[in-house]
Amino acid sequence: xxxxxxxxxxxxxxxxxxxxxxxxxxxxxxxxxxxxxxxxxxxxxxxxxxxxxxxxxxxxxxxxxxxxxxxxxxxxxxxxxxxxxxxxxxxxxxxxxxxxxxxxxxxxxxxxxxxxxxxxxxxxxxxxxxxxxxxxxxxxxxxxxxxxxxxxxxxxxxxxxxxxxxxxxxxxxxxxxxxxxxxxxxxxxxxxxxxxxxxxxxxxxxxxxxxxxxxxxxxxxxxxxxxxxxxxxxxxxxxxxxxxxxxxxxxxxxxxxxxxxxxx
Length: 264
Description:
mainly alpha
């Protein structure tokens, strides 16, 4: 059985489908981060950060010489010029990790439609932006699988749209995810950084120097944060699913589990 896409309401059909969708969500998150310049150039960036540190600490060089040296660091320059796309991809990875963990906990990650929805389900729709709604609550309140006009099995009064990034990382939702504080802080920062896709950042050696001095997470700090979370939380969860799944899941587990270890 192929892994179920979490965007499909069938991910709520039973535990088997939810397990498959969980693997699919993590796999998609890994693929997003794999596309970032930060991931691709991590080894080179790590070496260039040492060079940048030496240049910044060299009191024999004036500011112009330091900036000239930093300008020659190709990985840092490429990452700075790719900051918009990297922030977008990294933010997407983090958002997917959060939604996938919630799904694995039996929490509804699709939005309940408020307009025209009867009684108890309407109340749940209003509460969903404030706190997680369990799938069992949805069914107990009159929710059910139906066949729509496109012959798809779906949840009635539930949208195809999933919870937004801000909602996923609210305190009430985070309380249901065993995430580290470092990851939660980074996740909330990347919601803001991802929105900078509309406003191109400053480029050039001065911007690189500022980022280095401030220890901004858009450099390689986020790599370590995602890697640590993957190894302590995501990998054990995926291994547990693989071990206990009632049906074989046709997914390249080793590729997904080890992706973030590719560079140390």
